[in-house]
Specification:
The protein is 81% helix and 2% strand. α2 runs antiparallel to α3 and α2 runs antiparallel to α7. The protein is rod-shaped.
Amino acid sequence: MIKFFRKIRQRLLSENKFSKYLFYAIGEIILVVIGILIALQINNWNQKKINRAEERNYYSNIKRQLNEDKNTIAANIDYNNNFLKQFKYAIEIIENNDRTLADTLAKISVNLLEFSDFHRQSNIYETMVNSGEIKLLKNQQIIEKLQLLEEKYILINKLEDTHSQAVLGFSVPAIVNTIKVYKMKVEDIEKLYSFEFQNLFTLLTNLMNEKNEVYEYTSDEISSINNLIDDEIGN
């Protein structure tokens, strides 16, 4: 093709047809420019196609991780609810001063040492920001929701730290001084039925209810993000 154009140029020059040569040269330049523009357009189209494929892949990975987090949250809610029922029953036993249920109360009291501890799959948002991969995501609403979700995760961790500190600072001393755990025998029944023990059940119940509220809100946020991701993958 290059040789063909060169022969035409040489023939026009040899025939002293400079005006035609000039017109032809301009046309040739235009064709070259058009060719370059088309090549750039094709390259841009291919790059956009590659970026879109990578974006969808990231969305799929995010959704997978979020679903694992959601399953873990659901398990923690069930875990809390199991003990919440027991603790509410214990509060009633103490309130009614039913000494026939002392052994039951002792067994429930030992569960004051238990607490849910959510561990997320990974820090999705921070990882993508640090790696620079966040720029591949074009849906700003998803990015903003991932930011809000990160704040909820931080709140969950703070509540769990508070719970663990309450267990170590209050539950452990109360149980150690009241119940012989090895034989599950009540050593100080008056303390077991005291308002202090009832307060401990009440305070931890309130904390667990607060944790469950945040768990459920976070789970709803994950569902909302997943719906947006499904729309993106579908498009």
